[in-house]
Amino acid sequence: MDDSRTVQWRRDPTTSRTVRVLWSLGVGTFFAAIVLIVFWRLFDLTGETGGQSIVVAVFAALVVTILALAASGNTERHLERLTTRLSVTNPTGTGLRRATDAALGTIAMLAVIGTLMGIGRLVVEFGLLEGAGPFTGLAALTLPLALVAIALSVFLQSVGTLDLEERRLYLYDPDEAVDLEHIEGVSVYRIGDAAVLSLEYAQPDGKYVPGPRRLVVPPEVAREVKGAVGTRS
User: Which of 2, 40, 77, 176 has its CA at a distance of 20 to 30 angstroms from the CA of residue 199?
Assistant: First the structure.
């Protein structure tokens, strides 16, 4: 192994599909809950004026527009055309990708939560069950699950550099440097396109050595770290 090499990696929504999906669905769930509350509020308010069809049409048009923008080859340009007359700053680059992911996650969770609530209402109307408790409960359960999804997306993210010459592991966001000489053992657990590194630190003179005990990195980085620790002199 060439000890002068450095190995860099980045796991975030732009490079990992798993992180991207978890973040999108997690954030989208909360947006979906807000959208549903607004939708039903407007739907009820317009019931006496006969404007319910307009509310449905507006929301359907927004969903179709978002899907069309996401599916287009140049989302940024099409978005700029739509907002030409509005004094707003359009997101670009990473910001646009995150906004698109959040919007798609919102639509996906709107479908899930809306379906559960719709089934619950039908069950009540046809008297199939006493109340819509199970379906309402499942819809409400999406909120804590969304928190879990967001937490997992954060845990699965990592950015860093393995410097084999300095025998150090540099982590960013937050910044941290780990001396490989302080690591006694490394175990690797593969999960899809990622690997969970469990690091065992030495305790010289019984002193605690600060540093991450678990890291989620690409499999090739995990192999490099394990090899570097295993071949130290």
Answer: 2
Q: What is the dihedral of CA 70, 17, 168, 226, to 10 degrees?
A: -160
Distance CA 233, CA 227 (A): 12
Domains defined along the chain, listed by start = 6-12+157-230 (2.30.29.210), 17-155 (no CATH)
**Beta-carbon contacts of residue 14 (< 8 Å; ≥ 6 apart):** 20, 94, 97
Report the run of H or E that residue 189 belongs to, with start and end: strand 183-191
pTM: 0.78
Which SS3 state, helix, strand or coil, does residue 85 take?
Answer: coil
- pLDDT (tens digit, 9 = 90+) per residue, 67-124? 887 777 676 676 666 666 566 666 666 777 888 899 999 999 999 998 888 888 787 7
Query: Radius of gyration of the chain from Cα atoms?
Result: 24
